[in-house]
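lol ok so funny story. i was supposed to be doing the assay writeup but got distracted and ended up predicting the structure for this chain instead. priorities right. anyway since i did it might as well share w the group, maybe its usefull for someone
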Amino acid sequence: GTRFVVLSRKKDSQVYLKEGSVELESGSRRVLLKPGQLAKASKPGNLAPIEAVSRPAHLTAWQQQRFLFDHTPVSVVIEQINDRFNTKIGIEPSLKDRQLSGDFVAPHSQDIIHTLTYMLNAELVAKSDSLVLTPR
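and the output, tada:
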């Protein structure tokens, strides 16, 4: 059998192949994924070069309602939270490049946000139509 994971976000889509084979087509380009490979495509259909995945748990963590970070910039963490929970959280520039590592179970947005604000000594401040993560 073939086993794969598809992750579709606002800016791109990803296919990670666990077992078997999957053929992808984007325009005139066709690729055959092998187990352990990842294909990414931007929404207009641009297929990026195929990548070998050394840590597949990062790609499948969402299935167990987890976030896995390994020296991940806070800007990327916020992007993942916004994608997963359909939130509009912004971030102050002074926090964007700070990095987080860890394995967090978060079935609800407030679970990961609470952990994030504690770890960064930050708070969420309401500004117009969104919340902004700011230092305390």
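Residues 3-54 form one domain. The longest helix spans residues 74-85.
back to the writeup now i swear
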